[in-house]
Write a structure and sequence with these properties.
Layout (H helix, E strand, L loop, with lengths): L1 E5 L2 E5 L8 H31 L7 E2 L20 E2 L13 H13 L5 H10 L4 H17 L1 H11 L2
Antiparallel strand pairs: 1-2, 3-4
Length: 159
Amino acid sequence: MAHWFLGSVAAATDCTDCNGDAIGAAVQGDLESVMGFFDKAKQAAQQAGQAFAPPQNDGQVHVRGAGPIDPAILGGPSTRSVSTDDPIWQPINGISLQDYAELARDAQARGINDEAGMITLAQERGWDPADTKAALAGWVQRMGQSMAVGQQFRKFLGY
């Protein structure tokens, strides 16, 4: 019996009537089983991807590209979907996430890149400076709690 090692796959054959090509016979058989394995793995990955795909129009804000492990267990922002009526979406001192994104987009267009400049810009909109400062800090904190908030913010920014 001859043993042939193909990477991590060992093939054994006692083919004596293979026109002198025992290796070819072993390789061909192993390739068929390996290719069948890869086809099955590819199919399983596609099914898993469909299982993790969030449903549409279900009253939730989903995190795109989130894997099966939630980084919140390590102190990072959560990748869990968030209901559209969750308190995390409530305005902070009257400033919604969309208001904050519009302010940030305006600040970016004007070359403003600090908190003081953003507060000055907010005053032009008639917002109270103390409320604005609290809202800016609050929205950043919420983005640190949930990736859904950060993704929604970027969506409002136009990214």
